[in-house]
Amino acid sequence: MSNDIQRVPFELLKDFCRKAYRKVDVPEAEAEIVADLIVRSDLRGVETHGVTRLPIYIQRLQKGYVRKEARITVAKEKGPTAFLDAHGVMGHIAAYRGMEKAIAKAGEFGIGWVSVKDSGHFGVAGLFP
Question: What residue ranges of the chain have pLDDT lower than 70?
């Protein structure tokens, strides 16, 4: 067994992950977001939630445990707060869209507070802020 470390460029690994998601019919925009986030997890040193989880995430999509296409709706909204229903979509997408909403709220109100329900595993929380 060799102790040689093989480094893979970020864009190459991200493209591989994106293609894996596309292969199971995840829409391009969602595939791009999730691929970027799981590769960034590895870059942050959180390999337990990075590319190593790709086969698990793909299996969950294939088995229908999580929705392939995002259909996130606003369940409730008032001032700087919002409550989103992710309707079973991949957690990375739900968290990403939730953060987009929180940023928009913060731009308008100076603070944004968004909760999301009914999504899958979203990986490394520290990637979203």
Answer: 1-2
